[in-house]
Amino acid sequence: MIHKLPQVLRLHLKRFRWSGRNHREKIGVHVSFDQILNMEPYCCRDSTGSLKPDCFVYELSAVVMHHGKGFGSGHYTAYCYNTEGGFWVHCNDSKLNICTVDEVCKTQAYILFYTQRVSQDKGKSL
């Protein structure tokens, strides 16, 4: 159970497994993830009972992907949400491309970043 919620929640998906003595291989299946995440069912009531309901709600803000087959090599890219412009951007080294949320949700995510919709301390939207 979670006792205190962070402003930014990072979920690291297991994308590699041991295969043989000293060999790790990539797990290449698609993992579905939501744009909105409600953390209330995973929280300890004793610690979070005074929080407003919106404090439990998180919005997807970034997705990191690993390209390549091996653990020791490959390339990382990220999809990031621009809150001021209201659009998603695929960041690949020096290239930035605007993309849709559908493209983001179809990726083979490695790390998911969710941002709390409302601050716990001030009760204000972030």
Would you mind describing this structure in some detail?
By secondary structure, the chain is mainly beta. The protein is built from two helices and nine strands, in the order ββββαββββαβ. The strands form two sheets. Strands 1, 4, 5, 6, 7, 8 and 9 form a seven-stranded antiparallel beta sheet that branches. A hairpin with a 5-residue loop joins strand 2 and strand 3. The longest helix is centred in the C-terminal third of the chain and has 5 residues, at 101-105. The model has no long low-confidence stretch (mean pLDDT 85).
Structural class: mainly beta
Low-confidence stretches are none
Count the E strands: 9
Quick check: average pLDDT?
Answer: 85
**Helix coverage percent:** under 10%
Instruction: Estimate what percentage of residues fall within beta strands.
Output: 35-45%
Radius of gyration: 17 Å
Shape: flat
Taking the sheet with the most strands, its summary is:
7 strands, antiparallel
Distance between the termini: 25 Å
Task: Return the string of H and E elements.
Answer: EEEEHEEEEHE
Total of DSSP H or I helical runs spanning 4+ residues: 2
